[in-house]
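Researcher: Please translate sequence to structure tokens.
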Amino acid sequence: MDNASYAALTRQSGLMREMQTLANNIANASTTGFRAEGVMFSEHIKALGPDGPSLSMATATVRDTVMTQGGLSQTGGTFDLAVEGDGFFLIETPSGQRLTRAGAFTPNGNGDLVTQDGDAVLDAGGAPVFIPQGVGPIGIGPDGTISAGGQPIGQIGLVTPIDPNQMFREGGVMFEARGGFEPAAEGRMLQGFLEDSNVNPIIQIGRMIEVQRAYELGQSFLDKEDARIRGVIEAIRR
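Model: Translation complete:
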């Protein structure tokens, strides 16, 4: 296989990865707190010899998460929270502490505030948030302060990653901040709201059509290249 075929195959592989990413975005267009994802193409250049030409290949191995604000939907739920601006909720999962923008929480049987998967929501100090039973109406302020009957009883933590480039998606709406995190300087919580997915289905579908056409064009090139090589082999055999 010559260099043109190798270059085309790496391009096809990247386009396939982008197609899978776009399909996942569209599938999560209505998922609370979901962040759209893209892929980044990078070019690798290799010299083939001291005086020979270079070989250039493109790969798409780096995933890029879109962090723009999603729309806010009012639910009226006491423990439904949305973040307006920067910041993530801090969650304790079996794999460790994770960050998320999905704020559909509820108290469990022990009074701990948890996600829909049962993972504990953490306060500003990294401890589980406890909601006492039968203490009157619960209010949650913009800074995450929880009050019951007008008295503060805790505070939900809001953090930001120290290095956004070290944010890795884990599950649909969970992120691991491998570079660490710190208290959010900006951003506020809204009680009774949930943040929508920031996926724009129309843009995603339009891009999917472009990628599909580019993939078909690359496949056509590979088919013609295969026919050319077969023709050369047959000619040599004669």
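Researcher: Any highlights?
Model: Residues 82 and 194 are 5 Å apart (CA to CA).
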